[in-house]
Amino acid sequence: MNPEVGAETPVEPVKIGPIGAIAADRSGFAPLRLPLFRNRWIASTVSGIGTWMQDTAGTWLMTALTGSPLLIALMQTAASAPVLILGLFAGATADIFERRRLLIFWQMWQLVVVALLAVLALFGVIGPYMLLGLTFLMNIGSAMNNPAWQAIVPELVPREQLPDAVALASASNNLARAVGPALGGLMVAGFVKASTGAGWVFALNAGSFIAVVWVLYIWKRTPLFKSALPAERIKGSVETGLRYLRYSPPLQAVFARAFIFTFFVSAVWSLLAIVAARDLKQGPMGYGILNGSLGFGAVVAAVLLAKVRARWKADQILIASSVMYVGTLAVLAFAHHAWLVIVFLMAGGFAWTCTMSTLNTSVQLLAPGWVSARALGMYQMVFQGGLALGSILWGAVAEHSSTTAALAASALGLAISIPFTTRLHVMRGKIPDHTPYHWRSPVPHLQNEPEPEDGPVRVLIDYRVPVDKYEEFVVAIHKLRAARLRSGAIRWGVFRDANDPEKLEETFVMESWLEYLRSRERMTEGDFTLVQKAVSFHAGKESPHVTHQVYAKERAHTV
Length: 559
Known about the structure:
The chain has 559 residues and is mainly alpha-helical. It has two domains: 20-421, MFS general substrate transporter like domains (Growth Hormone, Chain: A); 457-550, Alpha-Beta Plaits, CATH 3.30.70.100. The chain has 17 helices and four strands. The protein has a four-stranded antiparallel beta sheet with strand order 2-3-1-4. Helix 1 packs antiparallel against helix 2 (69-96), helix 2 (69-96) packs antiparallel against helix 9 and helix 10 crosses helix 12 (338-366). The longest helix is centred in the N-terminal third of the chain and has 31 residues, at 35-65.
């Protein structure tokens, strides 16, 4: 039997429960019992503390170097723009190259750039534009590192523990967010010159990358998905990632919600230093405490998230988080009392973790292993794009008007967006089964075997379907369309013979024979159940007949 249409032996039905019930009976800490995940988590936390110390020290150093709200807000843009520019490219490289080596390279990149920042700051020769430029360079390394860093999580834990693992990874970041800003602010405040204090913070952050490099160096990686075919080229890998997104409406909904949320919420990250200095009359330590309040709320959310997920649906969590952040933005705009601001920043941190963990988990559950890093890269590109573009807008509004106007406008915009984003559903229904399907039939052996780059290739599958089953078959076969297109087809269609009402033909076109072979590797168990459903309507004595056609190129004539 040809693998396009079925298997020699029946496949057991996939037993997958509702997404909302994934973590109902667990504490959420089970992944930490696994040594590989635990080591990654500790290393990530250490490095994250250093990064958030740097973020606080760098932003405060900018306030010491310039009084321009726009330049201060651009620190957030410098942190986010590299992901906006490189997110998809970073995901493509992470899906093509060996992730362990790739991660080590980009960790070393960040270490070198941060060390240079430390030297320049300690010698007092750093200016606002140099600080922006080196922050941008450091975050190029972060942008290229993050898709691969997140994509290895499913390699470290069982699939049923993935939501907890993502929540714990978020907790690591937010624990760092709670501790790092306060430590960074304390170190800067401990020196007469802001540049000296920031320089020592940068030096400590450079050292924190060593912990991650060590964990990666000793890790003996076993990838979940490994192709036996030649590696994709970068351009083709990027196009394949975009094609997958185009034919995955659930991923599109996640990305849209991520952009809208971060675009408005970016006002908090980009303007908090100005609120601390001008409205609350705080120094670097006070700013660190305010930033740490966000992190504290985020840590509380990470601890309680398993219970929250068990009780509330993803859409409900996202709505509540947006409402909570509207309140946080409004308080920052109008209530200039430190204690009240701290309380609402904690609430904002809680909402941030609930939102980010929910969206991040959904991306990892919706994307199969062969495209996971590209999906995460695109997600981070959209996510950081919202932060970068929002920071520019709110910084410009604050520059030409006031921080109160910028924060109030962002609160109003987020409130108005809520009724529209509720139509974009996240993690509804059952978890798609993206376990790679292991073919029970060999690669088709053709009399005229094509070369890998020959193409386009057209595949035709002939079905005989009783007239009374026609409507059911058409519904089933059309569910295959997105699966075929996501896995590499450039065109798809199903046609009914005008002379024979029981004869129907599914056809799809691949760019090349190699791309066709890759599409076979990309098929998941979930996709294969769709194939079997369509085949179940076939009434012929033999399996549906499959034809492989290769484009007939005109041969060059010799004189």
